[in-house]
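Structure in, sequence out. Go:
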């Protein structure tokens, strides 16, 4: 009897690191968004009347501040392969909680802290349903989107609270001394540094990427998958509540329908900024650049008397193009990197 054994060896090469550092840094989707942002700003400043004015920068940053704030934790949530669609409703709920408590005679500072607590509890509720109960985040946050918005409308109805301490409303719209940059950018920059360090320079952040790439592999590697996701959902609710307090002060009004649809703008900024909808990929600076790009484009179009409906259409088209382009490039790279197979040899034995 003769038996033949053939050994086949597959060669795999990680090509992401066989290129120079400048190519790995500059030739990325995030840097493409940064370049597009610079292009839009330069073209708008030279062709759109009023775009280059300092007041335009002030109002642009005030308009997109809630998006910038909420996009930070949303980036980490989506890198794990999850999503939080309830953030816009949480902005509205925290706004209503602040307004209702102030209307009831509670000091604004206490009311704002209560709103932050509501955001933390709401985010933790999302995290509990996703990580403990095991429900998909898409279904959970669609449900809590309606729940939080219903609570907001139920508390105030169609009424609005407009009486807030003048000190806080002025501070929300104030600018840093000697600049055109709003004061709200200070807490944003603090949170930006904190989330960058958390995501890119800690074991927790590496675990976030690992969960998005392969949840089961991450779990067997020692990553606390459920705990990590729970923390991220809680942070998402907390930051959304902070954005809700700012939103209330900036517009001087607490209403149940505040920030309706804001979650779509946040998700558009995150996905356009290079975060994969399948998880495992993304960088915060790309998301910040994408939020600034969306805000700059909308500001320039408004100055050109373009209606908000057309602006939404353009933003949606830009998002679809970015997703399709990313998927196409991923498929193209995968086809080019498909490992080859070679037969190294065969050994025959006879008995």
């Amino acid at each position: 009897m003769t038996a033949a054994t053939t050994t086949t060896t597959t060669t795999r090469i990680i090509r992401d690191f066989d290129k120079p550092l400048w190519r790995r840094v500059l030739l990325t989707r995030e840097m493409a968004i940064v370049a597009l942002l610079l292009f839009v700003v330069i073209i708008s400043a030279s062709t759109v009347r009023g775009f280059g004015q300092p007041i335009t920068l002030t109002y642009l940053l005030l308009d997109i501040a809630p998006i910038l704030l909420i996009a930070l934790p949303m980036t980490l949530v989506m890198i794990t392969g999850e999503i939080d669609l309830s953030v816009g409703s949480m902005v509205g709920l925290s706004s209503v909680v602040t307004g209702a408590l102030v209307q009831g005679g509670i000091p604004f500072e206490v009311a704002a802290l209560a709103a932050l607590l509501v955001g933390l509890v709401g985010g933790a509720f999302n995290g509990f349903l996703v990580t403990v109960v095991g429900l998909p985040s898409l279904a959970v946050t669609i449900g809590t989107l309606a729940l939080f918005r219903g609570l907001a409308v139920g508390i105030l109805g169609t009424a609005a609270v407009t009486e807030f301490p003048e000190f806080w409303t002025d501070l929300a719209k104030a600018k840093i001394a000697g600049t055109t940059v709003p004061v709200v950018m200070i807490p944003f920059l603090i949170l930006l540094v904190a989330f960058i360090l958390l995501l890119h320079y800690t074991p927790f952040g590496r675990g976030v990427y690992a969960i998005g790439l392969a949840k089961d592999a991450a779990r067997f590697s020692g990553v606390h998958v459920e705990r990590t996701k729970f923390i991220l959902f809680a942070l998402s609710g907390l930051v959304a509540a902070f954005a809700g307090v700012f939103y209330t002060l900036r517009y001087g009004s607490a209403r149940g329908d505040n920030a309706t649809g804001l979650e779509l703008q946040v998700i558009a900024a995150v996905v356009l900024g290079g975060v994969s909808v399948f998880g495992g990929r993304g960088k915060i600076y790309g998301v910040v650049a994408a939020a600034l790009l969306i805000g700059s484009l909308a500001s320039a179009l408004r100055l050109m008397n373009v209606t908000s409906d057309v602006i939404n259409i353009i933003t949606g088209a830009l998002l679809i193009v970015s997703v399709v382009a990313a998927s196409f490039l991923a498929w193209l790279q995968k086809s080019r990197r498909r490992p080859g197979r070679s037969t190294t040899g065969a050994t025959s034995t006879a008995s």
